[in-house]
Specification:
Elements: H1 26-49, H2 54-75, H3 81-100, H4 106-118, H5 136-144, H6 151-161, H7 167-173, H8 178-194, H9 208-226, H10 237-251, H11 259-272, H12 298-310, H13 319-332, H14 341-354, H15 358-372, H16 374-382, H17 394-406, H18 410-423, H19 427-439
Helix pairs in contact: 1-2, 1-3, 1-4, 1-5, 2-3, 3-4, 6-8, 6-9, 7-8, 9-10, 9-11, 10-11, 11-12, 11-13, 12-13, 13-14, 14-15, 15-16, 16-17, 17-18, 18-19
């Protein structure tokens, strides 16, 4: 979609921050803002234009970010960058309405909606029934999980439009190629248009058939924050916090207050409690045995255990239950040596029986090594199904290198670490693998 230039698109009369960051920092700031606000903006515009114009809403929001990147280095960051982004999106959306001769009543809708958020009342929402989803982003996630949209496209669509993920980030989450994800997104958008899927927010019992799709979206959103697939930083805490916020809202909703929802929230909380300890002061990755457990967030662990307890009601056992159980074993261990690896392996055994994911099998192999020794861990890796899907995944070689190192075969370990180094993307990952190579007595 081509967006025309509007004369007051940038609202340059806004006062820039007196200590505006240097130009080199602005792309990072703009990306952070975009990830935080894009979902709300897209959900607002989609509610006005209709879900059949989802691509249009995406383009408007993307162009607003592009204009921030073009103007902020010269004029400084506005004192209220969120309001700036909202106002820029408003002008772009109004241009679209005028140019495409859309219904005239959309103009006051756009102005009213963006002005409400820009005025600092972003939490205000129209009156709703008790069984409706009240959060704007969460509401549109349920729309993306419409039964007519294929399950494999629902999460990809929501991550792209609501969470600001790039195609490459989504592809890594699904162990797929960029081209495959791009095609999946194109088909999903085309299907929305062809079937004329309406922008309707399900409520009550209509939410339940879409819940699993929404839970998967939140799971992937948290995972990208916990271990980023691209960029300069391993952890994106804002993504983790957003996933926790949305999952917390779900647990308080009558239709979503289910064991698997509590299990997912428990998993997030127990893992997020360890975020501050995952890296040292220089940003280097710390293994579990190297982390300072005194810095783990005990209040967050307690919240996670409460939700784990609530997830135990009934007979349901989901993958989220098993992952939360594993996280609880780590979070409650007094130190690394007292970790209950036998129980962790039992959880992995049951998880592998549910899932054919090679990543799950790889993590199980690590647990096997802790219980039965590195030789058995290596054998578990060799017996993995779909191992070829991890050919470009640096952790496969990192695990193999670690197991070989434990067996005293430093040359074989170094070979695996070198291959892992060639596949690692993040600086923190490459530094971590380089340190492991040094432990083998060789250089990169």
């Amino acid at each position: 979609m081509q967006l025309t230039r509007h004369t007051d698109e940038t609202d340059l009369d806004q006062e820039p921050l007196p200590d505006s960051p240097p130009p080199r920092e602005i792309p990072r700031l703009a990306e952070h803002l975009f990830r935080r606000e894009s979902g709300r903006l897209v959900s607002m515009l989609t509610g006005i234009f209709g879900v059949e114009h989802l691509q249009l809403a995406e383009d408007v929001v993307q162009e607003a970010l592009a204009r921030a990147l073009r103007t902020w280095p010269y004029y400084g960051v506005p004192s209220n960058p969120t309001a700036w982004l909202m106002q820029t999106a408003k002008h772009l959306a109004l241009d679209v309405v005028r140019r495409n001769k859309m219904a005239a009543d959309k103009q006051p809708q756009i102005i009213a909606a963006t002005d409400l958020w820009s005025g600092g009342n972003s939490e205000e929402t129209p009156p709703m029934f008790e069984d409706e989803i009240k959060d704007q982003v969460l509401r549109l996630m349920f729309v993306c999980c419409h039964p007519e949209i294929p399950a494999d496209a629902q999460a990809a669509l929501a991550l792209k439009t609501l969470c600001g993920f790039g195609v490459t980030e989504i592809a890594r989450a699904f162990l797929a190629s960029d081209a495959a994800i791009a095609k999946r997104l194109t088909r999903a958008r085309q299907l929305i248009q062809d079937l004329k899927i309406p922008f309707e927010i399900p409520s009550g019992q209509e939410l339940k058939p879409r819940l699993d799709g929404v839970l998967q979206i939140l799971y992937l959103l948290f995972n990208e924050g916990y271990k980023a697939s691209s960029g300069e930083h391993l952890v994106r805490e804002d993504l983790c916090n957003e996933a926790i916020r949305l999952a917390s809202l779900l647990t308080s909703h009558p239709a979503a207050n289910l064991p698997r929802t509590h299990a997912l929230l428990s998993l997030m909380l127990l893992n997020a409690a360890r975020l501050s300890a995952r890296m040292d002061g220089a940003g280097n990755i710390l293994r579990l045995q190297e982390q300072n457990r005194a810095t783990w967030d005990q209040m967050m662990i307690a919240r996670g255990l409460v939700h784990l307890s609530r997830s135990a009601s009934g007979t349901e056992l989901s993958e989220y239950h098993l992952q939360a159980g594993i996280a609880a074993c780590h979070a409650t261990a007094r130190d690394f040596s007292s970790t209950d690896w036998t129980r962790i392996l039992d959880h992995y055994d049951r998880w592998v029986a549910m899932s054919d994911s090679p990543i799950v099998a790889l993590n199980r192999a690590v647990a096997v090594a802790h219980v039965d020794g590195p030789a058995e861990g290596l054998r578990a890796v060799q017996q993995m199904k779909h191992r070829d899907q991890l050919d470009s995944y640096f952790l496969l070689d990192a695990v193999l290198g670690d197991l070989e190192y434990q067996m005293g075969r430093t040359q074989a370990a170094a070979g695996h670490f070198r291959r892992a180094l060639g596949k690692a993307d993040l600086p923190s990952e490459r530094e971590f693998i380089s340190r492991r190579l040094q432990e083998c007595g060789v250089g990169a």
